[in-house]
Amino acid sequence: MIHAYLVPVLKILVLLNALLVSVTFMTLLERKVLAWVQVRLGPMRVGPYGSLQPIADAIKLLLKEDITPVRADKWVFTLAPIVSMVPALIAFAVIPFDRDATFFGYRVSLFIADVNVGLLYLVSITSIGVYGIILAGYASNSKFPLLAGLRASAQLVSYEIAVTMMLVSIVATAGTLSMIGIIDAQYNARVWYIFLQPVAFVILFIGGLAETNRAPFDLPEAEQELTGGYHTEYSGMRFALFFLAEYANMIVVSAVATTLFLGGWLRPFPHVAVLGFLGYVPGWIWFLLKTFVFLYIFIWIRATLPRYRYDQLMRLGWKVLIPLGIANLVVTAILKVLV
Amino acid sequence: MMPITPYHYLVLAAALFAIGLVGVMVRRNIIIVLMSIELMLNAVNINLAAFSYQLHDAAGQVFAIFIVAVAAAEAAVGLGIILAFFRNKETVNIDDMNIMRW
Amino acid sequence: MLEAIVFYTLATFILGFGVMVVTTKNPVHCVLFLVANFLCVAMIYVLLAAEFLAVIQILVYAGGIVVLYLFVVMLVNLRRPPDAQIDTRRQARVGFVLAALLLAEISAILMYSAVHPSSVATIAPQVASGGNTETVGMLLYTDYLVPFEVASMLLLVAMVGAIVLARREA
User: Fold this and answer.
1) Which of A35, A104, A224, C141 could cysteine-pair with A42, CB 3.0–4.6 Å?
2) What share of chain B is helix, strand, coil (3-state, %, to 5)?
3) How far apart are the first and last CA of chain A?
4) Residue A339 and residue A323: Cα distance in Å, rounded?
């Protein structure tokens, strides 16, 4: 009885801690990669090669004064960062890192829940995240955050349609909503879905960039136009929460893309016997590697592409991605019936 | 403690429906009146889900999904009307919405 | 036992948030309580083994409809909301009386039928099975195909209507 509750609680604790630590170090990775792209060194002072920089940042943010604007809506002002952080964290409940793995002689499954609505759960949870941004913009009682909040929410709502359409294509291909079921379907089909559904992959990745407000779709945070975006009035730990929520969302998008398109924990070419030595690497390490590749591409894109204009962003979303998505879904459905 | 039966869910739904009804009757901000209607629709959905659970029949859930679709349509059109009205009269008070009543 | 604890907690939250929606003055806070209410109702659906409905509830209601409400509230945010002064109309009092009557009547019927269960009501509730997405989907696309298509037409009409209504140069 105790065991039935203890193991999941332990798993959740380990996952949350690992997630928060990796989110913290994502900031260092981003600064380092951006610096290398621009032939700079990046943070070098704190720790060897700046490796302790995130800890220094965290201490700085914790010790900073936490300012609430006088005319702000105080309750909502406090609520907004929490609302933007929580969905990013609970989305991990359905992401499978591996079917099971052995630690110290115990065999544990490396996912928290395999629910039969897994993918829909993810979509619905991420659709809650938009509240954090709107509420931050509203509660600050200030022009620029409000504009940024409205921009961000319009952007999120628009791109959500295309992304959801692509997820439906994947579900139609795999024939299941369960995340583990989708990975099993890729194993049985002997091919990663990135090769079966390349259009879906591209649209989902672009949509993922837009939904996490990353460059080149980082209009809500455009410093030149909006002095920083919906978190302009925030400081200290509450600002840090927004910041961490963005990175946590990036990890969610990367993990979901890994599961849906790169076969999750499956090693490359799982049916080729010659490459059997790859099987000695545990599945969850493959999963983390693939996720890391996506995260690296996120940062790489930020260093490469200039920001879109707002009307261009909306045109891309509504006039290109959504029609393409519908076409892809229809073709997938027809092929599914024929084959 | 008494086990949870479908009646518990029905009482909960009835109470939620009554709250929504009070909202519709008492509030004068038309947006909040619409939100109270959403509360009442949710109460109905709880009923449907409870019956579906008791009768082992997913038809109740299908009807709940239809209600969600209708609620979405209602919200879209209702809020559109409110916006159009607000542009003309600069108010969302339902007591001022009487220009059709001559 | 666990189910009872979860149910009573959720019921308290649902009714509490419902009352807050109806009584709060600031419309933005109203919308927030409405979201909280919908999320708790979604958990009630999970308790009733209707996971698909729960996810639809969050996706469509909390993530879609209420965002729309929030946008409209911000567009029409007034310095002096209509409910600022205390309501003294007769309609308000009548509303409370009506709601109380309704609640009493429904509760009485439910109490009566709980004491005298009919043959249908004696079926024991099913243990929550693996999932119901497939069942609901099959029903939607076979028995209820025509209503399903009608609902999609309704949504299309609503979409066109909303765009026409909200257009500035109407």
Assistant:
1) A35
2) 80, 0, 20
3) 47
4) 24
Task: Look up residue B97 and give its two tokens.
Answer: 């919405």
| CA proximity to B52, closest of B10, B14, B4, B17 | B10
pLDDT of residue B101: 64
Check residues B68 and A136 and name the one with the higher pLDDT.
B68
Q: What pTM value is reported for the model?
A: 0.87
Residues on chain C touching A116 (C-beta within 8 angstroms): 51, 130-134
- Rounded to whole angstroms, how far apart are CA atoms A284 and C99? 56
pLDDT band at C130 (very low <50, low <70, confident <90, very high): very low
Q: Which residue has the tokens 């030595």?
A: A277
B71 near B59, Cβ under 8 Å? Answer: no
The ipTM assigned to this model is 0.89
Q: How many CB pairs under 8 A join B and C?
A: 235
Residue C169 pLDDT greater than 50, yes or no: yes
- Sign of the CA dihedral running B87, B92, B95, B101: positive
What are the DSSP calls for C72-101, one per residue? HHHHT--SS-TTSSPP--HHHHHHHHHHHH
DSSP annotation string for A270-320: TT-GGGGGGGGS-HHHHHHHHHHHHHHHHHHHHHHPPPPPHHHHHHIIIII
Angstrom distance (rounded) from CA C25 to CA A333: 49
Taking an 8 Å cut-off on Cβ atoms, the answer to whether A134 and C32 are in contact is no
Kindly tell me the burial class for residue C66, based on how many C-beta atoms sit within 10 Å of its own C-beta (0-12, 13-18, 19 or more): buried
Query: Tens digit of pLDDT for each residue in A214-232?
Result: 878 877 776 666 677 777 7
Q: Residues C86-97: pLDDT tens digits? A: 556 667 777 778
Q: Is A125 on the interface with C (CB under 8 A)?
A: yes
What is the Cα–Cα distance from C103 to B15, expressed in whole angstroms? 6
**Would the pLDDT of B99 be above 60?**
yes
Chains B and A touch (3+ CB pairs under 8 A): no
